[in-house]
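Quick illustration, no need to memorize.
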Amino acid sequence: MSNVMNGNVKEVNFDGLVGPTHNYSGLAHGNVASMSHGGLVSNPKEGALQGLLKMKSLMDAGYAQGVLPPQQRPDVGALRDLGFSGSNSDVLNRAAKEAPQLLRAVCSASSMWTANAGTVTPSVDAPDRRVHFTPANLQSSFHRYLEPQTTGRVLQAIFHDEQHFAHHPVLPATPAFSDEGAANHTRLCGEHGEPGVHLFVYGRQAFGGEREPQRFPARQTLEASQAVARQHGLTDAQTVFAQQHPDAIDAGVFHNDVIAVGNGPVLLYHEMAFLDEARTLDELRAKMSTPLIPVRVPLDAVSMDDAVASYLFNSQLLSNPDGTMTLVVPSECQEREAVWRTIQDFILAGNNPISDVVVKDVKQSMRNGGGPACLRLRVALSEAEQAALTGRVLMNDALYDDLTAWVNRHYRDRLAADDLADPQLATEVLTALDELTQLLKIGPVYPFQLR
């Protein structure tokens, strides 16, 4: 068992590398940004460099930063499973002609949003004192349903030491157990090394329950959240299950992390985040050993349209050594007057630890519907657990330089929908990913490496 000391635990943000096939296909139903930008020409190189620059700047500011590799795309194997045959070139060309929507799906670079990679419980909260991982099944959409197997291999490759890390199977990929990972999960605590309370937010109950959204689908079920909590050994005293407001989902809030963000004892959330706001806060207060610090943004300050367009709540909330917190927001927040005014006059000026705001340009990701919080999976690790990581995945200057050079060598700076059928693109991606696994020293994790 690992020994967790309260003072030596750091939250490491593992950001997903934007993949070489980053494109705008408008695949995510209910994600307003994704749908509205479908068909635009993307710039994979710029997207990857923007993501790396965010990681580097946060590392330079003293925050622990890790990196996770992208998925193998296009997923030609998925097309073969669906009846396309012949050479890779034949498969891609046939799919482009007969089922272009499938080709776009198997080329999605959505794994960059590692908040959806899975759910993590730190060792201080687990009965066996190990860090627990469950990859999300992402069954709500075909393009994301393709991710969990590789995600599981990547997590097991990096968090490999069984003394410190435990891995659980993906939940059954059925609507009843629809699971979108940490995008609907927030851990609230005092310090990161202290016991915490896990807030699981769901959109619907699979077997009947409260109100459901009418316009867009609810992607997370209560049953999935409860199953993950059971897998990780979490007790009733450590968990709060709250329903996301259906009206928020219908407004384009497809995950809870588009309407709320928590860190330490702070919960920054919109008035429309939870269907039963009072009960949610009361239960958190009753179960937390540290006083909850709620920061509630009212609807009359930030409209639902502004919340979704700016991704104010899809920001990173990071702890500083002096007890303050920094809010890392996408540059779109500056472009909405009501949002920027709320940050300056309400959030930063309020009676809470949030003392600073940092603006990041992640426009290539934002156009596909993912802000700073979507790009990272939070993993609280002790010094011993950090030392037990396999591979070269914790960001430092040398890794940043190597990854930047790798992107510049292998990525295109323009990708349109018609380019996805190019067999040369598929070859370029395999060459790049094979080099990446060597650069990160994580071993074979991709289907083409496991044949």
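The first strand starts at residue 10 and ends at 16.
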